Amino acid sequence: MEPLLELRDVTKRFGSKVALRSVSMSVSPGEMVGLVGPNGAGKSTLIRVSLGILTRDSGSVTLMGEDPLVSPRARESVGVVFERPSLPPSMPVISFLRRAARIKGASDEDVKRAVELAGLKGYEDRPFAHLSAGLKQRAAIAHAIIGSPRLIIADEPTSNLDPVERESVLELLVELKKQGASVLLSSHVLSEVLRVVDRIVVLKSGSVAISGGPEEILKGLRRVRVRTPEPEALAKELGSMGLKAATSGPEVIVQLEGNRDADLLDALAKAASKGIKIYGVDMVEPNIEELLR
Ligand code: ADP
Ligand code: MG
User: Fold this and answer.
1) What's the 56 CA to ligand 1 centre distance in angstroms?
2) Average of pLDDT values for 174-178?
3) Which of 12, 17, 184 to mutate to test the pocket of ligand 1 (most atoms within 8 A of CB)?
4) With 90 as the cut, is the pLDDT of residue 71 above it?
5) Ligand 1 pocket: which of 43, 45, 47 to mutate (most atoms <8 Å of CB)?
6) 223-291: which CATH number, 3.40.50.1000, 3.30.70.100, 3.40.1160.10, 3.90.70.10?
């Protein structure tokens, strides 16, 4: 099936600053793709170039089969949630969504569905200024899904939210995917994206550093933290048994390649038998810095 969004060798400069460097990526029907990278990596630029809001210096963009710079119409089948959604502070949620529906040629029934899906029932008459950050973000998503877009593009929809709100926004996006939409979700938090997407594209300084399924990305990434009063001695001991271990303050970080959990446990048992105390072992949450090293 033809991708809903496809970038090929896209380069974008702001003066002498290269924000996107020969980026190729795509979102196919039914897919939820995570666009992950630290601040300044080029996520928002990629999204704006994809929508034809920004011009590109070279390369091609196809959105719904068309170049968005040539056919702005292509954007009509895309629901966009911008990084900082501008919602009129004194306008009640429902008035805003109804207006949006009129502009998009969608029905009141569509508005109702968006309100229900986004979990905004009971908040319809509240002005945006009286909504929590999480509810505002869900209202922005409700706005994006009016008109049942085939593709939803959300730029860091979970940033500035507390953990509970983050979770509800991610769940909403997963639900939209279940109902048939494709999703491009950007975030600077790798661990949350890993849980919900089918595929991840990692941007580093404007280039695609890594891309693949969550499992693929996690492989070779698994790190374990061992707490011990003698980090140097333990790192040396583990190293001598062929494990990649390094001290990090009062801890030893072990990089597990492939399926070496058993090796690690054996090595820790051996170290303990030599008198090295081990206080605890736990997984290190994967983060982008780690992935990009
Ligand atoms: P991200 O969304 O991943 O944080 P951005 O796409 O916003 O990254 O930015 C990528 C790079 O491009 C950054 O170095 C940023 O400073 C630069 N940049 C983004 N927008 C502009 C602009 N309008 N003018 C100049 N530089 C910009
Ligand atoms: Mg951004």
Assistant:
1) 13
2) 96
3) 17
4) yes
5) 45
6) 3.30.70.100
CATH topology for the 5-218 domain: Rossmann fold (3.40.50)
Tell me which ligand sits closest to the C-alpha of residue 156: 2
Beta carbon of 55 within 6 Å of any ligand 1 atom: no
Q: Which ligand is nearest to the CA of 84?
A: 2
CA distance 140 to 147: 14
CA distance 275 to 113: 63
For ligand 1, say whether the CB of 42 is within 6 Å of any of its atoms: yes
CA of 15, closest atom in ligand 1: 25
Each residue of 193-246: pLDDT tens digit?
988 999 999 999 999 998 999 888 877 567 888 999 999 999 999 999 889 999
Q: Which residue owns the Cα nearest ligand 1 atom 24? A: 14
Indicate if ligand 1 lies below 6 Å from the C-beta of 39: yes
In tens, the pLDDT along 36-48 reads: 999 999 999 999 9
